[in-house]
């Protein structure tokens, strides 16, 4: 698994969401359910924007949003602590 995180996204994760890249990687490794596609018009991308919710090794719950590239890399768009609505959606549809 190879994560691609731009410098700008790393900065946003750290300053806005208090998330470090290692936590994002841990969530990928700890994911136990499926992926959901973000179908909202303003978030549509080619390839599709996908997301999931998983725990870090320390038990912190994060929503991870990414695009799977043709190369097999995962381009991270954001990661943050999900709200209750996001958790309910994920639990129901993942």
Describe it.
- By secondary structure, the protein is α+β, with helices and mostly antiparallel strands.
- The protein is globular and about 35 Å long.
- The longest helix has 11 residues, at 7-17.
- The two termini are 21 Å apart.
- The protein has 3 helices and 5 strands.
What's the layout of helices and strands?
Blueprint: E1 3-4, H1 7-17, H2 21-30, E2 36-37, E3 49-55, E4 61-68, E5 74-80, H3 84-93
Parallel strand pairs: 1-5
Antiparallel strand pairs: 2-3, 3-4, 4-5
What labels would you give this structure?
94 residues
What would a concise description of this structure say?
The protein has 94 residues and is an alpha+beta fold.
- SS elements, strand count: 5
Shape summary: globular
Kindly name the structural category.
alpha+beta
Q: Catalogue the unreliable spans.
A: none
Percentage of residues assigned to helices: 25-40%
Quote the average pLDDT. Answer: 94
Q: What is the rounded Rg?
A: 12 Å
Termini separation (Å)?
Answer: 21 Å
Strand order, sheet with most strands: 1-5-4-3-2
Which band does the percent of strand residues land in? Answer: 25-35%
Largest sheet: 5 strands, mixed
What order do the SSEs take from the amino end to the carboxyl end, as H and E? EHHEEEEH
Count of helix runs = 3
Multimerization status: single chain
